[in-house]
Amino acid sequence: MNKLIVTFVIVLLAFKPFTGVEGKMFPNMVCEDYNGKTVNLPLDTKGKYTLLGMAFSKDAETNLKTWINPMYNKFIGKKDKKDVDVFDPQMEYDINLFFVPMFTGINQLTSKQSKEKIKAMTDKELYNYLLFYEGDKTYKEELDFQKKDIPYFFVLDKTGKIKYATYGSYDEKKMEKILDVIEEN
After folding, report:
1. How do residues 14-62 score in pLDDT, each as one tens digit?
2. Which end of the chain, N or C, is less surrounded by CB atoms within 10 Å?
3. Any idea of the CA torsion for 74, 56, 135, 34, to the nearest 10 degrees?
4. Structural domains in the chain?
5. What is the pTM of this model?
6. Which of 17, 31, 49 minimizes the C-alpha distance to 168?
């Protein structure tokens, strides 16, 4: 029995909930957009809710891609008005949405080639939603990144405070929580 309890506690500690950053201000982060223009997060996004998907590695990038179509379709894509019920209009969202590949440590040495490869593989409609971060790993600690091989997602309120944080591949429950947080206000 004691062995079972110890195992359960170890499993819980290994997969602790990713909520320690909720309620904190998102740290200042200088990124670059597709055209090389500097974007300061969260300073340049204040006044709107902001969704950020961040990836530190190739494995994390793979999981990050599972979010792109659902996020784009829900928050950015143009809906065919014929498909919208007159009595139940689709909610329109006025948010910032960014996917941020992060180049830290030794990965900075290949960042230029990696950025070009990402751009070449990305649909041009998504260029406005793609930011690149190149720098140190301080954000790993500040944002409580527990593993480098999974993507992390943040919902920032209009002031830049983290209202919700999650990680991993896309799923409907995570999207429902994101919608709940955005629709609260």
Report:
1. 334 455 789 999 999 999 888 889 999 999 999 999 999 988 777 788 8
2. N
3. -40
4. 21-77+91-183 (3.40.30.10)
5. 0.77
6. 17
